[in-house]
Design a protein that fits this description.
The complex is a heterodimer. Chain A is an alpha/beta fold. Chain A contains eleven helices and ten strands. In chain A, the strands form two sheets. A five-stranded mixed β-sheet of chain A has the order 2-1-3-10-4. In chain A, strand 6, helix 7 and strand 7 form a beta-alpha-beta unit. In chain A, helix 2 packs across helix 10 and helix 5 runs parallel beside helix 6. The longest helix of chain A has 25 residues. Chain A is elongated, with a radius of gyration of 22 Å. By secondary structure, chain B is mostly helical. Chain B has two domains: 37 residues, no CATH class; 217 residues, MetI-like fold, CATH 1.10.3720. Chain B has 14 helices and no strands. In chain B, helix 2 packs across helix 13. Chain B is globular, with a radius of gyration of 22 Å. Classes of the chains: A alpha/beta, B mainly alpha. Chains A and B meet through strand 7 and helix 8 of A and helix 12 of B.
Chain lengths: 274, 273
């Protein structure tokens, strides 16, 4: 009993020391890098420094990649717990603004991240870690024989897009303007998931979603890349939320996402590098 | 049902009032919180914007159409469930009431696999030149699906409370079943039918999940007021709150008007058991 208490005291002391050290380090430029350096040089103390739990609020399109990154991270750092919450970026922004206990926020676009930085709810500058572009998704049989972006404007083709109010819809609008093609969608959905649902169920002949969504849907849809997609590149930023109680762990997780292993997982899922 | 009515005896322990007050607060407080968030200086422009008015108009039209469908389909169902016992009646009632407890998204998925282009009936309908996907008809179907149980429950309750004494008398006097239905049964349960219709209308007005899943979202065609609110919330919280208040106001007006009527014959509380 007594020894156990001693252990805990020692751990607490080590933790406080490490936190103090990192606090000093945070003053220097490239805080995240310095922190991870000191971790690796300290060797055994790494697991002591990284303990506790954080909650990561991430855009819905990051579900499969962040689930993998978080479980990898937990395996590498025993004693840490990453809780994930996925939803539309603007939903997450609303929740964080209303005081939701998020430690890290990963947005599907810079606009939603800007809402939080403008409200001074973010610690430091967000780091861009991935990009995503649009792709045409069609049912596997491709009933309307779509092969290019211009085909989407053919009469009788049932196209579903995101509404201009959401990031994927704004991207679709940008591509339309850039190509001079005007689409007459049969529906403007509120999320990529809803667009994809209309395509997989065969209700729509084609939908505009992200490359990563097509990849994630497997053989339920066929993806048709188009050159004009580079007109609207979505950038994903990640940052520590100002009210986080475990900024150490938050910074370490962000370092894992922006680092080499994060890049591998993200590019496997179809994301580009910023 | 009302054993104590008429005696003047209330017999409610004091602590019940405290919990009832908490319950009332639980329902009212979110509404108050929403009203407090309304940006009043922008309120009128927000609710009279073109997209808002289009969505409101579509909501009112589709809800009216759904209520009509509910009456056409629901009155016979309620009559059968209340008046003629038959094997499997309880099972039928359970299935008719299913949309009440089903998450609307599930209803939407079920409708999709029925009336969608690849659906059970959708393929034949498409061959016949009828396309339901992404049309206003799809919105009405979704609303009717979720609102029908409200009408059936209300009317069945009213029918059971009214009993069949008058109908039996009319029949012994030589009235045919059709005449009994038209001249005795329906007039007798009219208040119950009215309250059922109002509930169906209110439910249709608030329909969101099944519509989003099944009908899609396009201004003027399928984007009803709840879908417009959901979309506006992405960019303009003020507009979303203003439209929410508008929806609440319409719903309160509809429900409030119908329950203030003088209660003749079967009172709505009989219907709402």
């Amino acid at each position: 009993m007594r020894t156990a208490r001693k252990h805990i005291l020692a751990l607490l002391a080590a933790g406080a020391l490490a936190a103090g050290l990192a606090g000093c380090a945070a003053g220097t430029p490239g805080a995240a890098g310095t922190a991870s350096n000191s971790n690796s040089s300290a060797g055994a103390s790494e697991t002591r420094t990284l303990s506790g739990a954080i909650t990561v609020y991430a855009a819905a399109s990051l579900k499969s990649t962040f689930t993998k990154l978080a479980s990898d991270f937990e395996a590498k750092n025993p004693g840490t717990k990453i809780t994930l919450n996925f939803a539309g970026s603007s939903d997450l922004v609303t929740q964080i603004t209303q005081g939701a206990p998020a430690d890290v926020f990963a947005s599907a676009d810079t606009k939603n991240m800007a809402k939080l930085t403008d409200a001074e709810l973010i610690d430091g500058a967000p780091a861009n870690f991935a990009t995503n572009v649009l792709e045409i998704a069609v049912p596997p049989s491709n009933p309307a024989s779509i092969s290019s972006f211009a085909d989407l404007a053919k009469p009788g083709v049932k196209v579903v897009v995101c509404a201009p109010q959401v990031p994927c819809g704004a991207a679709a609008e940008t591509v339309e303007k850039a190509t001079g093609t005007t689409l007459a969608p049969v529906s403007e959905e509120s999320s990529v998931t809803d667009v994809l649902g209309k395509v997989t169920s065969g209700e729509a002949d084609a939908g505009l979603v992200y490359v990563t969504d097509v990849k994630n849907a497997g053989d339920k849809v066929e993806g048709i890349p188009f050159a004009e997609s580079d007109q609207a590149v979505n950038t994903y930023p990640i940052a520590t939320v100002g009210t986080s109680k475990n900024k150490e762990l938050a910074a370490a997780f962000i370092a894992a996402v922006t680092g080499s292993e994060g890049k591998t997982v993200l590019s496997d899922a179809g994301f580009g590098t910023p | 049902m009302h054993r104590r009515s008429g005696t003047g005896y209330t017999g409610i322990p004091a602590w019940i009032y405290a919990i009832a007050a908490a319950g009332a607060l639980f329902v009212l407080l979110p509404l108050v919180a929403m009203v407090a968030r309304v940006n009043w200086s922008e309120f009128i422009p927000l609710i009279t914007s073109e997209s808002s008015l289009t969505a409101l108009g579509l909501s009112l039209r589709t809800s009216a159409a759904s209520t009509a469908s509910c009456i056409v389909l629901g009155v016979p169902l309620a009559l059968i469930l209340a008046r003629s016992p038959f094997p499997g009646q309880r099972l039928l009632r359970a299935f008719v009431l299913l949309p009440l407890v089903l998450p609307p998204v599930v209803g939407g998925i079920a409708l999709l696999y029925t009336f969608g282009r690849q659906g059970l009936l959708g393929k034949s309908l498409e061959l016949a030149g009828i396309q339901i996907a992404f049309s206003t008809t799809a919105v009405v179907l979704a609303q009717t699906y979720v609102a029908l149980p409200f009408l059936v429950v209300s009317l069945e309750g009213a029918l059971r409370t009214a009993g069949n004494k008058y109908e039996a008398v009319a029949a012994t006097l030589g009235a045919r079943p059709g005449t009994v239905l038209r001249r005795v049964t329906i007039p007798l349960v009219l208040p119950g039918l009215a309250s059922g219709a109002v509930l169906s209308f209110a439910r249709s007005l608030g329909e969101f999940g099944a519509t989003l899943t099944f009908a899609g979202s396009l201004q003027g065609v399928t984007r009803t007021l709840p879908l417009e609110i959901y979309l506006q919330r992405e960019t303009d919280a003020d507009a979303a709150v203003a439209l929410s208040l508008l929806l609440v106001a319409v719903a309160v007006a509809v429900v409030g008007l119908s329950y203030r009527r003088p209660r003749l014959g079967v009172a709505p509380e009989g219907a709402l058991r």
